[in-house]
Amino acid sequence: MSVPLTLLGLLERQPSHGYDLKRDYDLWFGHGRALPFGQVYSTLARLARDGKVVMDEVTPGEGPERKRYVITEVGATEVDTWLTEPVAPEPHQQTVLFAKVVLALMLDRPAEEYLDTQRRAHLARMRELTEVKRGGGLVDGLLADHGLFHLEADLRWIDTTSARLDQLRAQVKP
Amino acid sequence: MTAALEAHGVALSFGETPALRGADLTVAAGEIVAVMGPSGSGKSTLLHCLAGILVPDAGEIRVLGERIDRLSEARRSELRRDRFGFVFQFGQLVPELTAEENVALPLLLSGVRREPALRRAREWFGRLGLDGLERRRSGELSGGQAQRVALARGLVGDPAVLFADEPTGALDSLTGEQVMELLVDSARTQGATVVLVTHDARVAAYTDREIMVRDGRVTTPAVAT
Prior knowledge:
Strand order of the largest sheet of chain A: 1-3-2
Number of strands of chain B: 10
Order of helices and strands of chain B: EEEHEEHEHHHEHEHEE
Helix content of chain A: 55-70%
Structural class of chain B: alpha/beta
Radius of gyration of chain A: 19 Å
Helix content of chain B: 25-40%
Number of strands of chain A: 3
Radius of gyration of chain B: 17 Å
Distance between the termini of chain B: 7 Å
Mean pLDDT of chain A: 89
Low-confidence stretches of chain A: none
Number of helices of chain B: 7
Shape of chain A: elongated
Strand content of chain B: 25-35%
CATH superfamily of chain B: P-loop containing nucleotide triphosphate hydrolases
Order of helices and strands of chain A: HEHHEEHHHHH
Number of domains of chain A: 2
Structural class of chain A: mainly alpha
Strand order of the largest sheet of chain B: 6-7-8-3-9-10
Number of helices of chain A: 8
Largest interface: A-B, 16 and 11 residues
Strand content of chain A: 5-15%
CATH architecture of chain B: 3-Layer(aba) Sandwich
Low-confidence stretches of chain B: none
Largest sheet of chain A: 3 strands, antiparallel
CATH topology of chain B: Rossmann fold
Oligomer: heterodimer
Mean pLDDT of chain B: 92
């Protein structure tokens, strides 16, 4: 799960304070594991250092100053590249895929095309593993099978999500 | 690239329900492709149009350079018999015939005499690991054996194109893989083009590429091979 890219994606919706980013991250991507405030602010500081976000206003408060962050062109390009490129087809990528789909819907990007691209990448990797299986011995074959079954599970998730995109869009972007 | 199959703007409705809404695809000669898509997406209808079983309401289909959507039923029937092979999900062997008679059936229907047809049919039993099962009837075969007999029947006539609709759908995973290995190896040896409908990604992984169908259209970008 890429916290910096996910926060950048959330910032592309609208300029936000660190508190709001953490709240939305926990709501959509935390899966019961809240993002520590320290990690939110250290990530935002790194993103600012790298020119991917800037602060547009600082509001003095009773506690620490509240800073509002805005995504830059460099940051937006990075989000776009991340969303467009398929995830390396390895097992256990569901959370990254999920984050990409949700963000794509929030940002009015073509989530269905991203899922199609991901499906092709997964099938291409499954072909490689099938070749390994056909050409190799039992051990190679069983290891390839392990990968194939996990990729197949990912693909079933991709198909299910693809069929429910309209429902998910209605939830993430009411 | 020599195209074995080409479809442009193929549309077909069943009553008020559109099954295909302008499907386009090209399959190169010798290519093995998987047609995939959700239930009701139109993938089986597309296969039936490509195989000349159904005639589209609109669009063009060329098979081996010949436009088939305008052919008479008799000519399409000839084409199916002489140039195409078929494998279906449940084998669909004729229960009254022995396994070797089932395999020989396309040859007999093409006018090959019984003895040479049976001789050619028997050659497939060794190739597909079916030795000794020649005289059995379909009820005496396991699911995997029956499907291998069906595969032999699909390939015995040396078809230019083999159409397979969920050929492993009724088999367990391991048996299905054995059938796919044999299907792919046999088709490659014969140089046959294969169009295979499947919902199973592990089956699709045996093919050269996938063609995705959604809502009656092909959504996969065209791939030149």
